[in-house]
Amino acid sequence: MPSSLFSDDESPPPSPVLEYPKLNLDDLADPPGNWQFLGETVQVNMRARRFPKPRLEAIVNHQSWGIDMGLAKRATIEKLLRALWKLFYHMEPDHRPTSFDEFADFSRDAGPRLLSHTIEIERVPISRYYPQPPTGNKALRSRFKRPSDAPESIPDSHLEQMSYPVSGGPIDLDATEDEDEEQEQEDEQEKEQEQAQVVANTKSPLRSARSHYSSASVPQPERHTARSLPAKNVVEIVQRIVMKLANADLERHHTATSAEQPCLVATNEQALLKTIERKVPATSQVRIAWNRDTDEMVLHPDGRDYPYRGRGPVGLWNTCTIDCVIVAAKLLDAGSTVIDRCKKDWQAQFTPLERGLIAATEVDWDLCFPGQSETLRDHFWDVVSDSMPEAWIGGIPWVQEVWTKATANFAQFQFTHYDQIRQCECNPGNDLGETTGPWKSSVMQPSEVPWETQGDVTMQSRLEREFAPKLQLDCDVCDTPDAITRWRTFESLPARLVVMVDPGVPVTKHTQDLTFEVETFEKRISVTYRWVGGIYENKDNFRVFWADNRPGEIDRGEVRMYDGAKNFGVIVGGLSYGHPSERVPYDWWAGKTIPLVFYERVDNVSSQVLNTVMRSVGSMVEAVEDKRLLANEIGPW
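Given the sequence above, the corresponding structure tokens read:
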């Protein structure tokens, strides 16, 4: 299977060489016409358009290892689905996928061994996990029990191999045998202990009664408990921990820390006295005189105190564009989150430009003097110039191009979708078109439509067309309205959405939450994105405006602002400009193009995770009520 068929978080399945004749699926009976797999008939699944044709072909190719599916080289979607439904109909129920996630999971096993053991057909019990049948002298596991309904023609060793799990990779048979032996020994010991306990309890009724009286009359003493916290504090701590689970992918990766870490091995007493000195900024507030009419801010002893949120590069007259790119990337931990570095070979996947941007975000700009700031910023500028020698420096298109190329391989911004289009009737080939894709990108640039040029539109309406499962478009040949239909299915959604709006189509209400209905391979879902910030332009000057609160924190509608040409590049927090749907100053967004806008996906914690939390807390409550020492009951971590 070509590697292009797999998403970035997938790897091709094992594809061992097939050394035995294929099992012919046509030799098996067809399932009843109304037979359902995962609650759907073939017809229902076709209408749902759960999988585009290239993905479906990849699934068939995976499932058909060692099996002749009886399909032509260019089979239709219906024939592909009917072949899969027939295969699953004859598959051992315990081996069937239990969800559409598992249906498209290429790490699961596939092959003739997964078919039901009740089928009387000549077959070799092989699969991707187990490409060889068991040898004739292979000893059976002690726990193996031959199914009562298995045909006599199937040997025990074949039945045992057919029963192995379908996920998690091939099992270590030697280790499994050792585990079985250990389990047998443990079971035998438990049995002996139970028998010994019975004997002990029946030897002396008087002693037994005395023992019972003693345990009942001397209760277990209470354990010493820590000081109780206010309920509000407890609730906040628990909620913070649970919501942190929902945002785990966007936490900073442990390899991305910029703090100096101890790295020496002490070999003598003198080495123990060595220390690492690290400077930290002494500022927590900045006193700013803010002229709201001109939006000018200067440090002034008669000003008002605002929260200090750090510093970015100290700008010069022509560096505001690249300064803003660095600051926005630093605020997003671009290239440094868990999801960005989740692959083992993440370093090899990043380009020199991407590595240069990461290096710029790792700089502690708070501690840089103007000369140092200029040198470090120019180092990244040199990397940009080497990577984009043809690009014209400055302006909105340049900012957008630098960002797109410098973050293309950062997983937090990536998304993938498939499209299917039915053309207008004026088009001779107006049948339902082939599925196209996968289309992968790290930036969403909404396409312009004629009615939008008549005036301002909301960001919600601009983007919901890009996420829409089904969209009607006017034909640009015969001008028939809604004559073209486009279906879109998302394989993955961005954890952080980067938006570039076409010039000439201003947007409004871009800082309010955005919610869309999205079609995925599994089901239709609702997804919400919250505004986190953006790079804005006004009169050829660029600034970064950013939300001054994190998810779950009190939202006062305040923003933080960075302008490298002002006040040594300070990032000022606690600024309030107006309505929550328009937090940015009017002159920086109204009637003009916003170079880059950033949104963060707001996820729920899964019910599975919450149930795990409840079970964990419940077990701790039980331990405390039983007066056991909690520190001995939890962990080890």
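The chain has 16 helices and 18 strands. Try to locate this feature in the token string yourself.
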